[in-house]
Design brief:
Elements (H helix, E strand, L loop, with lengths): L1 E4 L25 H5 L5 H33 L2 H10 L2 H15 L24 H26 L31 H17 L13 H9 L20 H19 L3 H12 L22 H15 L7 H8 L7 H19 L9 E5 L4 E5 L7 E3 L2 H6 L6 E3 L13 H12 L1 E8 L3 E5 L12 H9 L8 E8 L19 E7 L14 E2 L16
Antiparallel strand pairs: 1-2, 2-3, 4-5, 6-7, 6-8, 8-9, 9-10
Amino acid sequence: TKANTLPVVPHLTESYSSDPVQDDGGNDIPACTLHAYPNLIEHTLQWARDAVFERYFVLEPVEGAEFAKHLATGTVEAAYLRDLDRQPSTKVVRLQTARAVLVGPEPGDHPEKLFPYSVDLASGVDLSRCIQLARMRFEELFVNKIELLLHVHPLDKVVDDQGTRFWSGKRRPPTPERFNADDDLHMQFVAAATFLFSQMYRVSPGLPADRAEWPALIRAELSKIPELPEFQVDDSVQVPENDEQAKAIEKERQKRAEDEASGSEDRSASELAKLRALPSSVVVPVVQSFEKDDDENCHMDLIHSAACIRARSYGIPTVDKLQSKRIVGRIIPAIATTTAATTGLVALELYKLVHGHPLERFRSSNINLAVNSYASFEPQACAKRTFGRKRYIRAGRRDKTLDVSIWSMVVLEGNLTVQDVLDYFLDHFDFEVTTIATSGDVSLYNDMFGQEDRLDQPISELFSSVVGEEPPERIILNVDGDFADDEDEDDDADDDADDDGDDDDDDDEEDDDEDDDDDEEDDDDDDDDDDDDDDIPIPAC
């Protein structure tokens, strides 16, 4: 029965992300609850989305696809390895991930030793291999993972002298889910995983178009798979009891990785040798992009089945697929009258926009039909500032300053290089760009990492090699930097003695349409004590 509306008018109001009255986003589920101690279906669904779908069909394929593309273009040494060498502590892990995706996973890959199987993918991937891989992932997630947890924390474990059991309160003791081809949820998981693996490796022919044929075909292939070896728990593996312990273990692991980085060349060389043995025509894995409303892509089939199998293991009531979709998609149900009232309020604001009314005519609304409460108020105007060095602002130098708001942007046209972007801001605003990132905080350039080799690279080519996707027609760039040092700064302006230390965050977008950046807000991290010029947003570009 509750609803609120907010008119967002470009160049007039704040953006939606600026609205201080938003739903509380602080309901994050503790990591240990997700990965070891769930007690609600929401926990298992979030785990299925992150630890199953995102890991196996998004994050890992990205690394495999990046190596495969460099292998095909002969730029492994020139680009891929050089990028790995900039972060030595992650080099082995990234090579291992690429090898697992392109050559095949090995028993030592999993940090918790949960996948004691070898799968040969280098010789080619067909539908049978996809079914085998899906079956092994089932064993890893729903049998081995539970057996490890119960080995580290047995059912009779106590945590204090009073005899308080570890498995008490909100901690539910799980039981392994042994695979059963006659169990609908088990088959749904294997079928969905098989479909996604076949998509990932571009398998042809894949599963039949008629889904009614899937169970019989998959059961026939499963019967040909040799019995999986019995899982042996590694006593060295730790399963944290809470988030504090998890952070300590992760910190220790990172420190160990950094300490071992200098001596990990043999491991890196071994992984690289396996990858180099691949032909340059190796299939570039397809990276999935989650879409809950497409019933043909098997995304929700995988997430729903994985979540419900895990829920059964922990004694948590399961839900149907529609309910799973609602929870995963964070869909908030509303009665028809509330929806109708909200639609009417939005339509009223649309009339004002069409007729070009000023800001004071627009209204934000907050209603609650249950208690007959209706409130309306004027939306917040977007803040407008002047971007530039303060001495230029005081002098009214329009050639060195720019009036900006969160809706502003600088449009750079052409196939520009990194150096072109740096030169533009330096020439126009005395602003030295130090980092350039694109959507999703993916770094394209950072002068702290010695990336001078990227200066002459076109932004579009850099986007392709780093992001692993074809560049869009308009590339959004987020630029950070400092105003250039100037020895001729006014000596008598004591209150501006720190002007040259301003740190500004920039949303820089190669775009022809000013309204495409309506959700970006440019905030300035500034150490100055001056009042109006402390936070000078850099225009989007």
